[in-house]
Every structure is written in structure tokens, then in C-alpha cells.
Input
Amino acid sequence: MRFNEKELVSLSRQPSVISAELGMRGPKKGDVVKRRMVKLVVNFLFYFRTDEDEPVGALLLEQCRVEKEDGPTFSITFMDEAERKYVFECDSEEQCREWMDAIVKASYEFMRKNLIFYRTEIHRLTGKDPLEQYGISDETRFQVSNGLKLESRDTSSL
Output
């Protein structure tokens, strides 16, 4: 993925959904748990050294799996690189659940599924496509049919 480092640093300074100092172990063999300030902004998980303002790194939370580990610990693995596993140690089970929930809800995939679900439900209840009033229906790839099934439009000819 290509990115602009300055824009990424600027994004890391935006208000976060959740942030805390957590134990973090990277995906390399021999990596040890280090205390990092971890911050979730949109669908990026930024991590910082506890005494610095610029992130050490960032994880784009797309096509990843969040799993509960032993104790107040969770891990993030990426579907295309299952061996690339990041482990995060929280202070409590409750904090661990909060982080896992926030990370799952941060992905574009989750938001897209919710949009489709609620759009279909509104269409079912009202008979109207809620996005029509914004002129989005013709441009959007997924359309709600009268049978409440999602139809993928062929956009290759557009």
C-alpha cells in the first residue's frame, strides 16, 4: 500500500476511538512485549513509544482477524499473512473486550456490511431506498432489489 508519511502522522494526531498504554509484541520471532501507547483512529491502529509523539508504526485494520488469547490479551492477524501476528496485553479482561470490539467495528468491511444491512431494512420497511434522496443509488455498486437481495452491478462497462 502506498501512503504519504506526513498525512499518516497527521492522522495519528486526530481524536481516537480508544487509546491506552498496552503491552505489544510484534510479529517477528524473538520480539518481546514492550509498553506502547496504542491509539485507534478510524481504521488505523497507531502505536507509539510511550515518550514520543510520532508513531513507531501503524496497522491498517482491513482483512484482519482479532482473537482473544489467554488472560487479558488479544491478537491481530492478517488474512493474507497469517504468520504476521501482533499480540496486545491489556490491564483487564474488560479493557481487552473493549479493544477487540472497537477494532472489529473500525474496519471498512464492518461499516460496509452495516450500511448494506440497514439500507436493506429501511427499504423493506418503507419501500424506498434511503440513499436515493442523495443521488447515490445510480453510482453505488450494490443495489437493493425488491426481493431484498443484494445485486452487484457490473461497473466494468461504465
In short: Residues 111-152 form one domain. The CA atoms of residues 6 and 12 lie 10 Å apart. The beta strands are 18-25, 34-41, 44-49, 57-60, 64-68, 73-78, 81-89, 142-144, 150-152. The helical segments are 5-12, 93-106, 108-126.
